[in-house]
């Protein structure tokens, strides 16, 4: 079945194996390096809680609607001991 599909040129023009090799080699060279992180695919604000701490202004790092599961807000900023440097306060919204 595969060999039959490879030999079938009714949809495409036949290509020599050397041409296919050069195309694959060029694609490999083009995409072998890390892609730049110029812009994120999804904006973080769409998926994280929009609340900000009233004392430090840091956004809550939990997902949207986490309060419906009775989970409080949490700041991303932590000191070396793993504890928030200042207790964050969020408006009850």
Q: What is the alpha-carbon Rg in Å? A: 26 Å
Helical content class: 10-25%
- Helix count, DSSP H or I runs of 4 or more residues: 2
Mean pLDDT: 73
Distance between the termini: 62 Å
Low-confidence stretches are none
Q: How do the helices and strands follow one another from N- to C-terminus?
A: HH
Q: Provide the structure class.
A: mainly alpha
Shape: elongated
**Major beta sheet summary:** none
Share of residues in strands: under 5%
Number of DSSP-assigned strands: 0
Could you explain the architecture of this structure?
This protein has two helices and no strands. It has helices spanning about 1-5, 15-30. The longest helix is centred in the N-terminal third of the chain and has 15 residues, at about 15-30. It is elongated and about 70 Å long. Helices cover about 25% and strands about 0% of the residues. It has a domain at about 45-93. With about 90 residues, the protein is mainly α.
Question: What keyword list fits this structure?
Answer:
mainly alpha; about 90 residues; about 25% helix; elongated; 1-phosphatidylinositol binding
Topology:
Elements lengths: L1 H6 L9 H15 L62
Short description:
The chain is an all-alpha fold and 93 residues long. Helices cover 23% and strands 0% of the residues.
């Amino acid at each position: 079945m595969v060999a039959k599909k490879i030999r079938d040129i009714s949809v495409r023009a036949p290509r020599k194996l050397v041409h296919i090799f050069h195309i694959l080699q060029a694609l490999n060279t083009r995409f072998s390096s890390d892609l730049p992180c110029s812009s994120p695919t999804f904006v973080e604000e769409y998926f994280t809680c929009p609340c900000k701490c009233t004392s430090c202004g840091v956004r809550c790092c939990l997902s949207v609607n986490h309060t419906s599961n009775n989970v409080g807000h949490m700041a991303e900023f932590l000191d070396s001991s793993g504890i928030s440097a200042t207790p964050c306060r969020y408006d009850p919204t």
